[in-house]
Specification:
Radius of gyration: 21 Å
Largest sheet: 16 strands, antiparallel, barrel
Oligomer: single chain
CATH superfamily: Porin
Order of helices and strands: HEEEEEEEHEEEEEEEEEEE
CATH class: Mainly Beta
CATH architecture: Beta Barrel
Shape: globular
Distance between the termini: 33 Å
Strand order of the largest sheet: 2-4-5-6-7-8-9-10-11-12-13-14-15-16-17-18
Number of domains: 1
């Protein structure tokens, strides 16, 4: 009987892989095992605006993923759950973490007290940045500016996926609270094989969502960001707001990074974005992100501007076109393309890298 049950489960998994896609995660063994997929591929035309770099055309697989998740009701009334998410490279580039559980993966329990989870996850600070900006995982992703430095020595330092984390989250009416602690953000270890606690991090967010309004704040403190001696400390704070007026929406975000150890991560940044619904299926979006000068260095800011149009072909599939440019001051070289989009776009001091992208997104 046990072998028969195992065979039924195995055949169910194979069958789910071969069936046509539907609009939500595919249930394989009820809620105990579900499969979800996001295929996000784009054709990009980029210009780094460097002394030696030329315009290029390439294919990118933008945070494409496959995941397995499930939950199970325990006899004591609590719910146990898990998620195993892996990166998928549809462009054939299998470097950079194309392994099992290379993305957000965790186990946890939930009850009336809230949810506790342990594993590998985006920090609340990083997740907050995505909630209050647009163009995530594209050539115009916010991470070219937000959380990044003006000289790229510690690029994306404050937009991390934390290893060795434990996180508590709970909702109080329309307000969600997240608090995370990572014993070793970077997953380093001592010669004895234990985590290096000097690479720890604390991150948290509070977001209020009620109808068309969303507003919130986030904070993060990372120890030894550059993983070197002497140890380095960076603190970050963000506030954001969005409002959906129906036919159009507006959003804004402000970020302040402070560090006594890393001057280029001691600066403020802010951004605004807007969405206009052209039809029920098509929307036009624009975003401007501005980074101020970093500590004691004049002309070290940048402005990133993007505009794009997206059309939903159905509830699982959409296509888009996006143009973005990052205009750097003389003492800055913020990237033209940041994290989330598989291929970054570096530049020279004072450069103005540009990118034009045609994308296809299929998600179940």
């Amino acid at each position: 009987m046990m072998n028969m049950k195992k065979n039924v489960i195995a055949l169910s998994i194979v069958g789910a892989m071969s069936l046509p896609a539907v609009a939500s995660a595919m249930q394989v063994v009820g809620e105990d095992l579900e499969i979800y997929i996001k295929a996000h591929v784009s054709l990009d035309i980029t210009d780094p605006d460097t002394a030696t770099g030329d315009s290029e055309t390439g294919i990118s697989s933008n945070s494409s993923r496959i995941g397995f998740k499930g939950k199970h009701q325990l006899e004591n009334g609590m719910t146990a759950f898990y998620q195993i998410e892996s990166k998928v490279s549809f462009d054939g580039d299998n470097t950079g973490g194309d392994t099992l559980a290379s993305r957000n993966s965790w186990v946890g329990v939930s009850d009336g007290f809230g949810t506790v989870m342990v594993g590998y996850s985006d920090t609340p600070f990083k997740d907050f940045g995505g909630q209050f900006t647009v163009f995530g995982d594209t050539v115009a992703d916010r991470r070219a500016v937000l959380g990044s430095s003006a000289i790229q020595s510690t690029s994306h330092a404050m937009d991390q996926r934390a290893k060795n984390m434990i996180m508590y989250k709970n909702s109080f009416g329309p307000t969600e609270v997240k608090i995370m602690y990572s014993t070793d953000l970077k997953g380093n270890s001592t010669p004895e094989g234990q985590d290096k606690n000097k690479n720890n991090a604390v991150s948290g967010s509070i977001v209020y969502k009620d109808g068309p309004l969303a507003i919130g704040a986030a904070y993060e403190s990372e120890s030894n960001v550059t993983n070197a001696d002497p140890e380095t400390q960076v603190n970050g704070a963000r506030i954001g707001a969005m409002y959906d007026f129906g036919s159009f929406g507006l959003g804004a975000i402000y970020e302040s990074l402070t560090s006594d150890d890393i001057p280029d991560l001691d600066r403020d940044a802010y951004g605004i974005n807007g969405t206009v619904k052209i039809t029920d299926a098509t929307k036009l979006q624009a975003q401007v992100l501005q980074a101020d000068d970093y500590k004691d260095v004049s002309n070290s800011g940048a402005t990133m501007t993007a505009i794009g149009v997206t059309t939903k072909l159905d509830k699982t599939t959409s296509v888009y076109a996006i143009y973005t440019t990052t205009s750097n001051d003389d003492n800055a070289k913020f990237q033209g393309i940041g994290d989330g989009h598989d291929n970054t776009l570096s530049t020279d001091l004072g450069g103005s890298p540009t990118a034009f992208s045609f994308g296809f997104v299929y998600a179940i």
